[in-house]
Amino acid sequence: MNAKDKHTIYTLLKTADAYECGFIREKFAGEPVFGDDTETNHTVVSTPSTGSGTATTVSTENLGLTIEELNAKILRCTRCGLARTRNNVVPGMGVMNPQVLVIGEGPGYDEDMQGLPFVGKAGVLLDRMLAAIGLDRKTNCYIANIVKCRPPENRNPLPDEQAACFSFLETQIHILKPKMILCMGKIASEKITGQSISINQRHGEFFEYNGIPVMPTYHPSALLRNEELKRPAWEDLKKFKKYLDQLNSN
């Protein structure tokens, strides 16, 4: 294959990925230099150095994608089987450039009926938890989920359902640029950190997602089932608030 054909394929892949995700991921960053195949049929690909040792990314501002446009795409999504059983898609809600992005697992019954995240009993408790440390979805937070449609009977979202939906959350994070991320429960924590997480053992610890501090803590639903977890969850929130205050003071 010659260099021109390779560049054509590369451009098609890059365009398709940018359309799907809303931004150009690091794996497509920069402009590779393609060479014609040699007699051994090896492809020569090199990426110019940016001088900093890191890839150059293209921002969503350059692509003109807004959170409203992204959420409109989410509302039309039929990537997985959850699209067939949902009543409403739940893209997320909150403010632009939030202090904190709160990430849950997926919508429940009330969320599915209203099309809004965390509006049932767990949502009421979440709002109280956030208010206790000066946070609110109407002023300085954005709330989203790993999957945007309710799994039947509130079961855990399957790995393929999470994978089908995750690029939407990636793009939300890319657009919103939160200062910190608070993960509610095991599934959100594992998907964001890329690690196997025991909430009982790792709650209140700090991780990173693309340079953004991340803390896993107990899901509000778990606190409703077991009130003994409220004390450690409160200690997590105080630690989270202290870290956020330090970021805001710098």
Automatic annotation (TrEMBL):
Alphabetical UniProt keywords: 4Fe-4S, DNA damage, DNA repair, Hydrolase, Iron, Iron-sulfur, Metal-binding
Entry annotated with the keyword Protein biosynthesis: no
Single GO BP term: DNA repair
Cited Pfam families: UDG
SUPFAM superfamilies: Uracil-DNA glycosylase-like
EC class name: hydrolase
Uracil-DNA glycosylase-like domain sequence ranges: 91-238
CDD domains for the chain: UDG-F4_TTUDGA_SPO1dp_like
EC number, as in UniProt: 3.2.2.27
Catalytic reactions of this protein: Hydrolyzes single-stranded DNA or mismatched double-stranded DNA and polynucleotides, releasing free uracil
Database matches in SMART domains: UDG, UreE_C
Single Gene Ontology MF annotation: metal ion binding
Record has Ribonucleoprotein as a keyword: no
Tree of life domain: Bacteria
Family, as annotated: Belongs to the uracil-DNA glycosylase (UDG) superfamily. Type 4 (UDGa) family.
NCBIfam families listed in its UniProt record: UDG_fam4 (TIGR00758)
Protein name per the record: Type-4 uracil-DNA glycosylase
UniProt organism field: Treponema bryantii
